[in-house]
Write a structure and sequence with these properties.
heterodimer; A: mainly beta; 9-stranded antiparallel beta sheet; B: alpha+beta; 7-stranded antiparallel beta sheet
Chain lengths: 433, 894
């Protein structure tokens, strides 16, 4: 009898224990690498700043209300720190007074401030513009370069952190994926930079777009490209993508001339890609629709410098190379549409600049833009951007360095400028809060 | 000559194996009082034939060749190696005819010692293997002198009626003699005949079984007997069972060094396959004569397999031999006076040393709950109302287990953690062994149970997460149960001592795991069922009440929710642990004569199972569950082993329980091998702790373990854990009561993951956090990677970030400060910013992310809580008094 009681007790306890569910497995947090984790980033990575006897670079920032900047120019063995500040809307220029060639810069704004910045480089027959990157990433895309005939392409890696970093680079040309000599593993010293001019087995390539793997996310890549003429084109890389299921790139400007859009599929499978073309007259949705083979690149040439939108059902890289008589320009796309932009660069060369505003939505969007300069901002001018169209505005400005663009609905913004004496500059806007 | 004898015409068939023995055999036959009508030598070979001719007796090669004319009434088969009394044949014929037996056999006595029985026939098992009824060297005292039906009769001397012999087709000439006898007996009974042993017919023989043929021939014959006699339905279940049993048995023999059994098994099958052609004819003959079903055969069969049982007995004998020797030695030692149980102690101490040698050398493997105890005095000061530095500091006392370990540490110094654990294991094993004996178990089963409790699978499952709490509670619990189940004693002094010892044990148990205060009462309730006495319950209530003050400050400070401890684990034992334990419990409870130990073990183990699976919230309940499960498993095994060595009902169940129990010794062997009672290091925590120690530059800086999925964070308290010092000490395992600085820090981490910033290192330094441990790809990894003021390092266990600049917990204009358990000090500064939780202990103004201390003097001391201090002192005094009473009340002191 007693054994029976014990057996029943034990059996009941075992049964009860088996009914108790195990604790829920901890749900692995979804990891999203922030591309634009909020537009209010207070950091700007500007790897393309370079100045010597014949070349001048201007590192400029749009100031929305007030801005205190600490800019570190990472020279070879030292960092030149420049503190600049402005307490009202306008622009700020950081000048270290150096004349020693390429010196990447890191700008940090005060708490809660935004630092939309860009670099405009000029010389005789040269105009190059590039934005400052606003956030580190683990995988970058940068292009378009080329090494045909007299063309040169140089990769620049800037490590603004206190820790050495190692990156690896994949090159995509018209021949598909290529591993360039010396690109497999590049160590970038802390708060320093490394330049790699493409030679050897990557010579004689018509188009080159690069995927840069940066495990730590510390290095910002940039690309410098020269064509047959005197002009130089520069751009800073952008994160390839954060969404494994799709990819979207906007090119509100393509330089006003013949534009070559280069797409790269670094995945191991084919990716469906659709290219939409926007002009002042309207949109050609699905102007190009292709299945981009795995580990290849494709290029598409569009005359007249239309605005472009690239949509894909997997991450793809996209970059634009524009050529006019004036020169050569390259630019990366922007991955998002927002309602407030700062465009850094127009007017620094003292000439005509074109502000391109792309509205991919079906409805017209009122857009107001203000010219920002060292002395302040002009009053706003409002234009209506038709639905599914790109609107271009001529900006005849002197010594202005930025344009603040505010739209009631999300748009994308870019600019380009062609110098009379030679030189083509092109850049995209920087989203701000 | 009686009439029935006179009418008998018997042919004596001498089964010849050795022609040289035929002379004596023929003479023995001729001397029978009932003289056979003819004598025939049965055997192959010219030697037999020539010897028969010389002696003028007939000769045939096989029994089937005998000339059985109508005048013959009986055949007497007698082996040439035995000697029959002169009246043996007459008795067989007379008594056999009287009971109308088809076959009757003689009682066989040992020729070398004629008072000893060799065979009186017997039963077979279901596989037709003879099962002797006699014990070894059993004397013939007439105890079997009655004509009995048997399954088989020994082959030495058998009388078969001619009609039965002829009707049944005679003996199977293919079979060995004994198997042939079994076969004939079975066929006779199926045909409605009787097979009896006639004890008044006595023969003497040197060997029970016929010599000359290899043993496997008998086995092969037994298989053939099955195949011939059993119905198809019976064969359907008997044959698979036979195959399985034989395989287990031959493997068992092989393990024990007798691989020949396997060869015999194969030969037996091959032999039957070779002679399968005649089986059909034989089965048809049996079928034609069949008058009864297989039940007639089963009537004289025993359950189980005799061959398996023989092997098992041999195994038990081998296993028990050292034990028996040990018990004999113990008996001798005990009989000799002092030094009781030296052998048991020797084994116990050896096992203890082997199992804890790694701990003695380097301490308990490092984990979240097995940190060192560098400053036991400081821990006691914290316990008594001082500043608790865990994480970012708080006023609440550390867990009582810290105080318990610190008390040990005061006596043993810095090695307290090491020796505390090792001694706890020793004390616990002794206690478990003592408990087993209290429950009526033998010494060795009790010791085996203690080994399972302290070195078994549950200990390994508890791992470093069980920590000191598990070990101390497991050490105390057997003593508590032992004192509950023991006699309360005679006289008030002895009784007071008993209650005091029970109280001390309960207090230690409760300090290790406070919720265990209820355990004595629960155990007592089970004992009430088992023993039918209420005394244990009364004792338990008193002891639990008296033990409560030991928790002093802990009870006064924390809410009931907090008293249960942080989140616990979930014990999901592997089937190879759970199944043997459940089977062990059920079998021992059902089959055991000493079932009380198994009963207590079953209830404790299953209750522990439920607790360890999180039926009650909190880590302490989880630890207690594992403690109960561990001791329960030990008691179950001890009960089973104790049962296995004793004869009695349901022996097979007991044996099976023991076999299952032996599986649990695998982790014991592993525990003895690794020297750390089966507990492995928590690599995740060890990596964090080692990193902190290795990177420390003498400043007081903190590390943070990301709670998302870092391997170390699973066992650390908190969703993400701040480690406040480079040396990980046990008392810091509990977070304490927290505060606003800590809350701000966790809010900062959450915000950082949502919105990364460029210089997170500067923010981390605000909290005195220099290192962040996380895993690749985690949100925190993304938020910190590639930032401007923090390094990233990939380690085997994850990713570590380190701020570029040092991150002292506290500091003023003149330099960094150290905020210790008993003081804060550093270069004098008017204002010292300390990243600690604002509390009553430090007279500082609360500020963002910490406290502003007045550091002009360069040194500050935290204030103590007088109420907590008083509670701690009272608990210590009370504990000392009860311990004194426990000693004073011992019988040996009386």
């Amino acid at each position: 009898m007693r054994q029976a009681i014990i057996l029943i007790m034990a059996g009941a306890l075992i049964g009860l224990g088996l009914l108790l569910p195990p604790p829920d497995d901890p749900v692995a947090p979804e990891v999203v690498v922030p591309v634009y984790p909020g537009t209010a980033t207070g950091v700007a990575f500007c790897p393309t700043w370079t100045t010597d006897e014949v070349t001048t670079s201007v590192l400029a920032f749009g100031v929305l209300d007030e801005l205190e900047l600490t800019v570190a120019f990472h020279a070879d063995d030292e960092a030149v720190i420049v503190d600049v500040a402005k307490s009202s809307i306008g622009t700020l220029v950081a000048d270290p007074g150096l004349a020693q060639g390429p010196v990447p810069a890191l700008a940090e704004a005060g708490a809660g401030q935004q630092a939309p910045g860009g670099v405009v480089t000029t010389a005789a027959g040269v105009l190059a513009a590039s934005e400052c990157a606003r956030w580190p990433a683990n995988r970058w895309v940068v292009g378009v370069g080329g090494t045909v005939a007299e063309e040169t392409t140089t990769l620049l890696f800037h490590n603004p952190t206190a820790q050495a970093a190692t990156v690896s680079v994949e090159a995509y040309s018209e021949q598909g994926l290529e591993v360039g000599e010396g690109l497999g593993s590049i160590t970038v010293p802390p708060r320093g930079s490394v330049r790699r001019e493409l030679t050897g087995d990557l010579r004689l390539r018509d188009r080159l777009v690069f995927l840069v793997d940066d495990p730590i996310g510390a290095v910002v890549p940039a690309l410098q490209h020269t064509g047959a003429g005197t002009d130089v084109a520069m751009t800073v890389g952008v994160p390839e993508s954060t969404d494994p299921d799709r990819s979207e790139w906007f090119f509100p400007t393509t330089g006003g001339g013949s534009a070559e859009l280069v797409l790269v599929n670094s995945e191991s499978f084919d990716v469906a890609v659709e290219i939409d073309v926007f002009t002042a007259d309207g949109a050609d949705i699905g102007a190009e629709a292709i299945l981009l083979p795995a580990r290849t690149s494709e290029s598409f040439v569009f005359d007249g410098g239309p605005a472009l939108r690239v949509r894909a059902d997997a991450p793809v890289g996209a970059a634009v190379r524009s050529e006019r008589d004036a020169g050569l320009a390259i630019a990366m796309g922007v991955p998002t549409e927002v309602g407030r932009w700062v465009v850094v660069g127009p007017g620094l060369d003292g000439g005509l600049a074109i502000l391109d505003i792309l509205n991919t939505g079906p409805d017209p969007v009122p857009v107001t833009y203000r010219i920002l300069g060292p002395g302040g901002a002009t009053s706003g001018r409002t234009v209506i951007v038709p639905g599914s169209a790109r609107l271009s505005q001529e900006l005849q400005i002197e010594n202005a360095t930025a344009v603040l663009v505010e739209a009631e609905d999300p748009v994308t913004v870019g600019w380009w400028s062609a110098r009379v004496g030679g030189g083509l500059g092109m850049g995209q806007g920087i989203p701000v809060d | 000559m009686p009439d029935d004898q006179a009418s008998s015409n018997v042919i004596a068939a001498v089964l010849v194996e050795d022609p040289d023995r035929l002379d004596d055999a023929v003479l023995m036959v001729r001397l029978q009082s009932l003289e056979p009508s003819s004598i025939v030598a049965v055997g192959r070979g010219s030697g037999v034939r020539e010897a028969a001719a010389r002696l003028d007796v007939g000769w045939v090669a096989g029994a089937d060749d005998l000339d059985l004319n109508d005048e013959v009434t009986h055949l007497w088969f007698v082996r040439d190696d035995c000697e029959a009394r002169p009246d043996a044949l007459a008795a067989l014929v007379t008594e056999g005819d009287r009971v109308e037996a088809s076959a009757s056999g003689s009682k066989v006595l040992d020729d070398a010692d004629r008072d000893h029985l060799l065979s009186i026939g017997g039963a077979t098992d279901v596989f037709c293997t003879p099962v002797p009824l006699l014990t070894e060297d059993e004397l013939d005292q007439g105890q079997y002198d009655v004509i009995r039906d048997v399954a088989y009769i020994p082959s030495q001397s058998v009388v078969i009626r001619r009609d039965a012999f002829r009707g049944l087709g005679g003996l199977d000439r293919l079979m060995a003699p004994d198997a042939a006898g079994i076969d004939f007996s079975q066929r006779a009974r199926l045909a409605g005949g009787r097979v009896v042993i006639v004890p008044s017919s006595e023969v003497f023989s040197e060997e029970l079984y016929a010599a000359g043929l290899p043993p496997w021939r008998e086995e092969a014959g037994e298989l053939r007997a099955m195949l011939k006699s059993y119905s198809w339905v019976s064969l359907l279940w008997v044959l698979p069972l036979w195959v399985l049993t034989e395989i287990v048995t031959v493997l068992g023999w092989a393990v024990m060094g007798r691989p020949r059994a396997a060869a015999d098994f194969v030969k037996s099958i091959a032999w039957n396959a070779k002679h399968a052609g005649s089986l059909g004819r034989e089965r048809r003959r049996v079928s034609a004569a069949r008058q009864a079903g297989d039940e007639e055969l089963f009537r004289f069969q025993t359950s189980g397999s005799h061959r398996f049982a023989t092997w098992w007995s041999a195994l038990v004998a081998v296993v028990r031999r050292p034990v028996e020797r040990g018990e004999e030695a113990i008996g001798r030692v005990e009989a000799g006076g002092p030094g009781q149980g030296i052998l048991v102690w020797l084994v116990l101490l050896t096992a203890w040393f082997l199992a804890t040698r790694g701990i003695l050398a380097t301490g308990l493997p490092l984990g979240a709950w097995t940190g060192g105890l560098a400053d036991p005095g400081g821990v006691l000061a914290t316990w008594a109302g001082g500043w608790n530095p865990a994480s970012m500091g708080s006023d609440g006392p550390p867990h009582p287990a810290s105080a318990l370990l610190a008390v040990v540490g005061v006596g043993l110094g810095p090695s307290a953690a090491t020796w505390g654990v090792a001694l706890a294991v020793l004390v616990g094993i002794i206690g478990a062994e003592r408990l087993g004996r209290t429950l009526g178990l033998g010494r060795w089963p009790a010791l085996a149970g203690a080994a399972i409790a302290f070195l078994g699978p549950v200990v390994a499952a508890a791992g470093t997460d069980g920590g000191y709490q598990f070990v101390f509670a497991l050490a105390a619990l057997p003593w508590v149960v032992h004192h509950l189940d023991s006699e309360i004693g005679k006289g008030w002094r002895e009784r007071l001592g008993r209650v005091s010892r029970l109280t001390v044990g309960t207090a230690v148990l409760a300090m290790a795991v406070p919720v265990a205060l209820a355990v004595p009462i629960a155990v007592a309730l089970v004992l009430v069922i088992i023993r039918g006495r209420l005394v244990p319950l009364a004792l338990a209530v008193v002891a639990s009440a008296l033990a409560m003050p030991a928790l002093g400050p802990w009870l006064l400070w924390y809410s009931p929710e907090r008293l249960l401890g942080p989140d616990g684990g979930f014990w999901d034992p592997a089937p190879w642990i759970a199944v043997p334990l459940v089977a062990l419990g059920a079998l021992t409870l059902v089959a055991g004569e000493r079932w009380q130990a198994a009963a207590l073990g079953a209830v404790a183990g299953t209750a522990g199972f439920v607790l360890a699976r999180g039926i009650a919230p909190g880590r302490d309940a989880w630890v207690l569950g594992l403690v109960l499960a561990s001791l329960g498993s030990g008691l179950l095994l001890a009960g089973a082993l104790d049962r296995a060595g004793r004869p009695g009902r349901m022996r097979l169940a007991g044996v099976l329980a023991s076999v299952l129990g032996l599986a649990l010794f695998v982790p014991v062997v592993l525990a003895l091998a690794d020297g750390t009672i089966g507990i492995d290091q928590d690599e995740g925590v060890a990596e964090v702790v080692d990193y902190l120690a290795a990177r420390s530059i003498g400043l007081q800086e903190r590390g943070y373990v990301d709670g998302a999925d870092h391997p170390g964070s699973a066992s650390l308290e908190g969703p993400g854990r701040v480690l406040d010092a480079a040396d990980w000490t046990f008392d810091r395992a509990w977070l304490g009561s927290g505060g606003s600085t800590e809350a701000a820090f966790h809010a900062f981490i959450a915000e950082l993951e949502a919105t990364p910033i460029s210089r997170p290192g500067a923010e981390l330094r605000e909290f005195g956090v220099r290192w962040v441990h996380t895993t690749p790809g985690s949100p925190l990894d993304v938020a910190l990677s590639g930032r401007l003021d923090i390094f990233r390092l990939v380690t085997p266990e994850g990713v570590v970030f380190e701020t570029v600049d040092p991150a002292p917990v506290a500091g003023g204009a003149a330099g960094p400060w150290v905020v210790g358990r008993e003081e804060a000090s550093g270069p004098p500064s008017d204002v010292v910013a300390a990243a600690i939780n604002p509390t009553d202990r430090w007279a500082g103004a609360e500020q963002e992310n910490g406290v502003a201390l007045a550091g002009g003097a360069g040194r500050l001391e935290p204030a103590a809580d007088d109420v907590l201090r008083l509670a701690a002192l009272a608990a210590a005094a009370w504990f000392a008094i009860v311990s004194g009473l426990a000693l004073w009340g011992r019988r040996s002191f009386s």
